[in-house]
Amino acid sequence: QLSGANLTGCDMTGINLAGATLQRAFLVGVDLSEANLRNADMSGARMYGAVMRGAKFCRTTLPDLRVSNQDC
Question: Which residues contact 14 (CB under 8 A, 6 or more apart)?
């Protein structure tokens, strides 16, 4: 449960956030390269400048409320 968390600038490379709740979290400049974001809810998160190379998405709710299934 990371709703509203301020994770600005964190290096979260390879982190497992499967099923995490990141609603309205501050993820500005965060490095989420190779992160597991399957089933995560990132609705309303602020992600300006976030790096997400190789991140895994499946049933992931994106900040704009779209659901990504690219890695299902």
Answer: 33, 34, 35
